[in-house]
Amino acid sequence: MSPRTLIAGIGNVFLGDDGFGVETVRALAGHPLPDGAEAVDFGVRGVHLAYQLLDGYDTLLLVDATARGGEPGTLYLIEAGTAADSGDGSGPGPAVEPGGPAVLDGHHMSPDTVLALLDTLCAGTGTIPPRRTLVLGCEPACVEEGIGLSAPVAAAVPRAVRMALDLLRETAPDEAGAPRRALRRTP
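The chain above was modelled as a monomer; its predicted structure follows.
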């Protein structure tokens, strides 16, 4: 059986650039994906994402607006469980760590909360969470009420699609089952 990858577009399309993940997954739908890979628009349905992950995936790629202090439209690739920039100039912030308490608000679940809920669900069902979780994030310009992405974030969508497709190719196992190339990550 080939490794399974879920690309999950998350965010609220009614909050401007917060809809980046949803728009990126919509654009990705126009491209063929390798066997075992699927792209799904979860929007604000974090609970649904957590339950979908119980179906067994090797890799999860969350696509979301990610404020880290860069220029709007800057793309980031972050591996969950590694130190992440807090975005306020104070240095590393908390990593995305499963196992913390999950606050269940089905329409306001951050990736941290989804992963914490997943950890709880896996413990209760005996299933295994994804081996690797990555975030493909985009620096937003505006996350206030309104529909539509700002110009720099809209321009980042095609680049994000290429990154996701490259990521799928780079992480596809070779004949021996090893990843073909190491991932480039944002420090």
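The beta strands are 5-10, 37-43, 59-65, 75-79, 84-85, 92-93, 132-138.
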